[in-house]
Amino acid sequence: MNKITCILIIGLVVSACTSQPYVRFKTPNINGSLQINDAPAPGTLILLSLDAGDTECLRAVQRTRTDENSQFLLAAEKEHMDYTPLMTHYLDEWTICAEIQGVRRTLYSNNRYGMGSVSHGITLNCNFNTRAKNDNPCQQPLHD
Q1: Residue 11: beta bridge partners?
Q2: Model pTM above 0.90
Q3: Handedness of CA 73, 79, 85, 91 (dihedral sign)
Q4: How far is residue 54 from each of residues 28, 90, 109, 117, measured CA to CA in Å?
Q5: Beta strand 29-36 pairing with 121-128
Q6: How many Å apart are CA 17 and CA 129, to the nearest integer?
Q7: 14 lies in a domain?
Q8: What was the pLDDT predicted at 55?
Q9: Range of the structural domain that residue 44 is part of
Q10: Region 24-50: what's the mean pLDDT?
């Protein structure tokens, strides 16, 4: 096999791999629970923004409410692409807020810089204390 044939075959293989449609996850699936002042908070509005600086989730892309057990689920945000990128890095950011006593409060904010998709899922246990300064009301278990 000569050089030109090898280059042609490699080019075809690479082009076939990169021309397939691709779905990239910008956020993980987020399972969470919310308590306010150590008490259950059913029916609380939960919001997801794709901007780490959006501390009130004014540009929310998802909205949900806690269920009767104060649990919530935010589905992963996806980006559909016409091709599979080879060596592209992305900065993915997200902020989760809750509307507590008529005011939107940040529960959790995160970012990730890397190739491909973010992790498939995280679990958050949040306890927002309205009587004290609470910079980080959500805890993420180490196993996620």
Answers
A1: none
A2: no
A3: negative
A4: 18, 19, 9, 22
A5: parallel
A6: 50
A7: no
A8: 92
A9: 21-139
A10: 93
